[in-house]
């Protein structure tokens, strides 16, 4: 049994669409909007004011506009995730599960963990892993950039391995793009 679902809002298509379906089959499910700290849509849904404050290294989420996708959407929970929490989720997914995810997926996982803490033990929370790490190689695999933002540098970037990591992700991306769909 799924008790809650949360993810970043971006343009709202995934969150509002999944929420509409889940609420149609389970009216008691809790839906969480998870966005970077200072995101405008968190303030919009909490206070009716479309105002962003702060910044994040994440891209494509934390939008400052209302799209048609969210015309009839209201979250049960609005959650903000720091870049530090996002990086911890990204590092944990990579280290423990071998998953190289991007910043949006990191926000989603950190947000789902917040939802889980709020609703307590014995509940099931879902989210989506919506982006790959290679899209953010210039940020996530740049130890100097991460340090400049006071973010934890993953162990695999220490001791000069960052260029190798970036090269590996570039090769994987190129191979994925060259593979015919089907």
From TrEMBL:
Residues 1-131 form the Tryptophan synthase beta chain-like PALP domain. InterPro entries: Cys_Synth/Cystath_Beta-Synth, TrpB-like_PALP, TrpB-like_PALP_sf. SUPFAM superfamilies: Tryptophan synthase beta subunit-like PLP-dependent enzymes. PANTHER family: CYSTATHIONINE BETA-SYNTHASE (PTHR10314). This is Tryptophan synthase beta chain-like PALP domain-containing protein. It comes from Haptolina ericina.
């Amino acid at each position: 049994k799924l008790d809650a679902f949360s993810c970043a809002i971006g343009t709202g298509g995934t969150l509002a669409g999944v929420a509409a379906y889940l609420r149609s089959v389970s009216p008691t499910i809790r839906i969480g909007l998870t966005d970077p700290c200072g995101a405008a849509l968190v303030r919009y849904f909490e206070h009716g004011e479309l105002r962003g404050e702060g910044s994040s290294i994440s891209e494509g989420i934390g939008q400052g506009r209302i799209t048609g996708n969210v015309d009839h959407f209201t979250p049960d929970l609005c959650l903000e995730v720091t870049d530090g929490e996002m990086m911890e989720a990204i590092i944990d997914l990579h280290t423990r599960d071998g998953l190289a995810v991007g910043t949006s997926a990191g926000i989603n996982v950190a947000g789902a963990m917040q939802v889980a803490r709020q609703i307590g033990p014995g509940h099931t929370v879902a989210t989506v892993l919506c982006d790959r790490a290679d899209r953010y190689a210039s940020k996530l695999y740049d130890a100097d950039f991460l340090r400049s933002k006071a973010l934890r540098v993953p162990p695999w970037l220490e001791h000069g391995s960052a260029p190798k990591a970036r090269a590996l992700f570039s090769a994987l991306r190129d191979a994925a793009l060259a593979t015919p769909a089907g």
